Predict the 3D structure of the following.
Amino acid sequence: MSETRFEPRAVVVRSLKYDGREHRRWRASLTKHEGPLIVLDGIFEQEVEHALLGNIRAGTQSTEYFWTDRFYSVFRFREPDGAHRNYYCNVNTPPTLEDDTLSFVDLDIDVLVAPDFTYQVLDEDEFALHSARYGYPEELRARARAAVAELIELVERRLFPFDGTG
């Protein structure tokens, strides 16, 4: 029986707002695509000062977990020396992967998970503001709230990708 080989490849990640405009863009390496799970690896090329995360040094590593059937993504950040830094979870529409571009709509709410697995739900005010501004349908708002609840359950129960295996 032959084993299917997966060759990592460079991709561009596009984070969009609900109106379709690009919010952020970065490069990463697609390292796994099995069923609905897509795993990317990235490295911060430049130092970034983030309002909530503080100073992110150049060389910080990011393993990014996306699912084509879930309304969230999970980013595991590691310091340049490989030490675990934190998880940052985005509530977003399921991504599409076309050619070498992975795109999704950012739905504003985030969950920040500290190394000790304490967590904070962030940007609920931004979610409410954009829900009104862009006219998020009720079904989308409900999916976003369900995604937050699912993320919290995964963190509290230490299930993948919060189980240390990813």
Notes: The chain is about 20% helix and 45% strand.
